[in-house]
Amino acid sequence: MPYISRDSSGAIASLHRDAPAPSAEFLPDSAPEVRAFLGIDDEAEEFAKLDAGFVRVLEDVIDTLIAKHLINITDLPSEAQAKLFSRKSFRERRGSQALSLFGDFDPTFPSSHSE
Fold this sequence. Notes:
Layout: E1 3-6, E2 12-16, E3 25-26, H1 32-38, H2 42-67, H3 78-96
Protein name: Tryptophan synthase subunit beta like protein
């Protein structure tokens, strides 16, 4: 997408979906100038991705502590409980829509290679 218009100093003044003039300059969405004009901070995006991964790690740690009976879910504040249940429910719903490459896997069922 963006066709750009520049100001007198050569900086991007506006972005356009369609060329505003036959000689309009086209830049890809990923161009650093376009990203800067839109206020997209690559470092902030990377940090947000790291945060999302870290949240998943914390969820797994909490699940492990609960499974080992080191804490109870009720030991957590009600707001934390609600957020954990909400995220777990969302992941389960997404998982049910995911592609199952192995079908229903039963680890107790002997494989044909064990004969």
